[in-house]
Write a structure and sequence with these properties.
- The chain has 439 residues and is an alpha+beta fold.
- The protein is built from 3 helices and 11 strands; from the N terminus they run E-E-E-E-E-E-E-H-H-H-E-E-E-E.
- The longest helix is centred in the middle third of the chain and has 148 residues.
- The two termini are 32 Å apart.
């Protein structure tokens, strides 16, 4: 394969770089530094016909490329009827064709290499895309699982919250019942205190009644003594005795009445004492019951407090569970979004890989066509116009030597004889036809 370019690596000091391939004109040489096309005179000059000299030495590691790109917009030489054809002009035209075909062949090889690299890269991209797609699917599955777990957590949290609310309601009811029990116990204690007070008053009244009865008995006894004295004095005076008898009778009646009254008072006092004792017993029982009620109420209040604390803890745990569930739901949503983005990226990578394969295939087709054309151009460059014409079958004036599509845009590249005598020729190269004169 013919050399059509030179590649060098800069070292920061070297400015001269050799051109090792032939060329027709300095304008056909493109100079690149790290892939950037440089400008003649501004960035470099020609030290001589085979050496490029940079104005500033390329930096260490910089890539210097000297590439031949022969101008194919027009032939190097044009021939007219009756004019002479110089060997130098023919050689220049053939060199132009040869150089163009060499550059095309080299570019075709480069295109094939690039296409192969693109195909390999596309295969790698497809593999990466498949991996990304698999990862995305796994992420979607994980996200769905997380979402299901989050939903279950939310359901559990809602149940815990409901149970906590029920516990709070039960605790509030227990607290209310305990308060009512305390109120009832306080009322019972107050009633017991009142009963004790009443019993004490009844006992005091009974004691007083007993004292009054004793006084009445003493008075009655005194009356009897007086009556006896009056009876003894009655013998001394009838009038006085009668009067004393009457008085004594009255005294006896009064004493009897007082004795009866005193007995009744004693009975009433005894009844009062019994009633007071019963009241004390009832009061003591009421006090004990009230104490039990207070104890029960205190226990109920303590249980209610514990229930409220438990309910508060359950409510707090439920809130934490809801928060955790919400976080899990949010993470699940983020995971789904990430999975969707990964899936989209995988699809894009897969599409890009397919495009790369298509581009690589097209490049391979173009490269193969370029190689065929290059072979045709090389075969043409090894013969003269006369040799080609004479070797072509057909009558003079009707011979057509098809050269293939050497130029872009027009598929009419051929040589043909025009006069019918085999002496005058014209050439159609590209879209324009021109005379070759007489060979």
């Amino acid at each position: 394969m013919a050399t059509t370019s030179n590649t060098y690596t800069g070292n920061g000091s070297t400015t001269l770089f050799s051109i090792t391939f032939p060329y027709l004109d300095t304008s056909d040489i493109d100079v690149y530094l790290n892939g950037v096309l440089k400008t003649l005179t501004t960035d470099y000059t020609y030290a001589n016909a085979t050496t490029i000299q940079f104005v500033t030495a390329p930096s260490n590691g910089a890539v210097v490329l000297l590439d031949r790109s022969t101008d194919d917009s027009a032939l190097q030489a044009t021939f007219f009827p009756g004019s002479s054809i110089r060997a130098a002009d023919l050689n220049d035209n053939f060199d132009q064709s040869l150089y163009t075909s060499q550059e095309t062949a080299n570019k075709a090889v480069t295109a094939t290499s690039t296409a192969n690299a693109a195909t390999a890269a596309a295969a790698g991209a497809v593999s990466t895309a498949n991996t990304a797609l698999s990862t995305a699917n796994a992420a979607v599955s994980t996200a769905n699982t997380a979402n299901a777990n989050a939903s279950a957590a939310v359901s559990t949290a809602n149940t815990a919250s409901s149970n906590a609310s029920a516990a709070v309601a039960t605790a509030n009811t227990a607290s209310s019942n305990a308060s009512a029990a305390v109120a009832t116990a306080n009322t019972a204690s107050s009633n017991a205190s009142n009963a004790v007070t009443t019993a004490n008053a009844a006992n005091a009244t009974a004691v007083s009644a007993a004292a009054d009865a004793t006084t009445a008995i003493s008075t009655a006894n005194g009356a009897v003594s007086t009556a006896n004295a009056a009876t003894a004095a009655a013998g001394n005076a009838v009038t006085t005795a009668n009067a004393a008898t009457v008085t004594a009778g009255n005294a006896v009646t009064t004493a009897n009445t007082a004795s009866t009254t005193a007995g009744n008072a004693v009975t009433t006092a005894n009844n009062a004492v019994t009633t007071a004792n019963n009241a004390v017993t009832t009061a003591n029982a009421a006090t004990a019951t009230a104490g039990n009620a207070v104890t029960t109420a205190n226990a109920a209040a303590s249980d209610a407090t514990a229930a409220v604390a438990t309910a508060n803890t359950a409510s707090s745990n439920a809130s934490s569970a809801v928060s955790t569930a919400n976080t899990a739901n949010s993470n699940a949503s983020s995971a789904v979004s990430t999975a969707n983005a990964a899936n989209a990226t995988a699809n894009t990578a897969n599409s890009n890989a397919s495009n790369a394969v298509t581009t690589a295939n097209a490049a391979a087709v173009t490269a193969n066509a370029a190689i065929v054309l290059a072979d045709q151009a090389i075969n043409l460059g090894s013969q003269s116009f006369g040799d080609l014409y004479l070797a072509t079958a057909g009558a003079p004036g009707s011979k057509i030597m098809n050269l293939g599509d050497l130029t872009t845009g027009c598929a009419s590249d051929y040589f043909t004889g025009e006069s019918g005598s085999g002496s005058n020729y014209s050439c159609a190269l590209g879209c324009a036809s021109f005379s070759l004169g007489t060979l």
